[in-house]
Amino acid sequence: MSIDPKPLPSPRNGLPAGLYGMVDAAPAEALSALEDRARFLVDNGVGVVQLRDKHGAESLIRMRTLAERCARFVPLLVLNDHAELASELDPTGARIWSHVGQEDGPDPRGPFGRSTHTIAQVTSAGAARYIGFGPVFSTATKNTGYGPRGVVRLEAAVKASAVPVIAIGGITLENIEAVRATGAHGWAVISGFWDHRNDPAALARLR
Length: 207
What we know:
This protein is α/β, with parallel strands linked by helices. The chain has one domain: TIM Barrel, CATH 3.20.20.70.
């Protein structure tokens, strides 16, 4: 069964709107499995996919190989932390960006996004093309050191930001409409997406 997704906002700052895909590597997970996950996201209408691998000294080597493979089919690829690699693989920044956190130093050379958790961080995000804001709801995927921000703060972040805002953290089918209502440009649905991988109707609603 195929169900058309709801109309999405137009791309902004070069960033596709709607569902922001995440591929988070487990320790020693095969690159082929990670590539398959990225392809599944794209096949289900996702325009931007972030690759994240924080496991061990070989993560840079793995990220290079995975990025080279995924860049062949992902419309916009975002490398978590690896800003230098992103610039090396795509000097123009047309297809590969990076994503950095609050503690990751000065702005990278190429296009990038930055994680934010407060309005002060939102308004001081430097030259970021977009910002991630969260965790919006409680989540076990990643410990940011911040409690749930909620949709009221998310909406405030959207209004305060000069660039597109991607909501992240605990977003599910049950609360996706509340996230959409804030005006967020996109939303990262991690476990909630993979929980419904065999349900086309649910995947369409998450887009």
